[in-house]
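Onboarding guide, step 5: your first structure request.
Type a short instruction followed by the sequence, for example:

Predict the 3D structure of this protein.
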Amino acid sequence: MRNLIILFLFLANHFATYSQESKFILIDSVTKQAIPYAAVLFHSYDNGLYTDSTGVFYASKSEIITLSHLSYCHKTIELSSITDEFIELVPKSYSLNEAIVTPNHKKTLKGKEIGYKNLGTRTKYSGTRGTIIAVYIPNNETNKQQFISKILIELDKEKKDEDGLFRLHLFNAEGWLKPPQSEILFSDKIYPSATQSKKSFSEDVSEFGIIFPKEGIYLGIEWLATADRIMGRPLSTNPFLGLTNKCNENYTWIKNIWSNEWIELKDTDIVKLGKYKYLNAKISIEIIELP
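The system replies with structure tokens like these:
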């Protein structure tokens, strides 16, 4: 009986230790600075959260997790192996294109907008934490050298009492019949939903010298949730993305980063329940042709 009691106490203590959530801080392996809004995938139930603005997240030490961030190499780790609260990620090394569109260029070169932002709005979509919607924008002038100077999106803030957080993505493309391919690294900037004005969001990206690929490009938006929901329930939040039904094909794909599987928007309830044929994200780019 005494041995059974000791075993019970040992197991109870072990369970309590591993079921309690511990604090972890994600940091850059070089600078030792905190990494905010990195994705944390829990292998035990294929769901996850983001680190907060100080790189902090909470989890049980029994978890196996995968950490990912646009600017860092992915890392899978057993939290039981962490002896203190710090976890390091190694930064990716990449260089910007040398042909930067300088301020002097922008004064003399006129940009041209292509995409879907100015088409009629049929409905709006608000993503939950970890949702990415990306739309394909074709390059119809492949014989010219063109650079992306601006990203233009119809966004709205319908929940007036909260500011959602989002980031932008650019993906390589193999035409609109295939999902977004590898990520084009350009910025890991985080935007609050209050950034947009009068349902319009515009970001100047000319400093990155992003070539407009001949195969076209996918441009996406990722919902990070609100600051107080980074580690809470994954509720839908600001911003609301405009969707148009003024296209004759599906150019838009959606995924949740925890499952990492792209689905055509036309195959989701967003389209089916609304009895639409196609809906596409109201996103455009401004391009500049260099002499």
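Each response can be followed by summary notes, for example: The domain at 103-289 is CATH 2.60.120 (Jelly Rolls).
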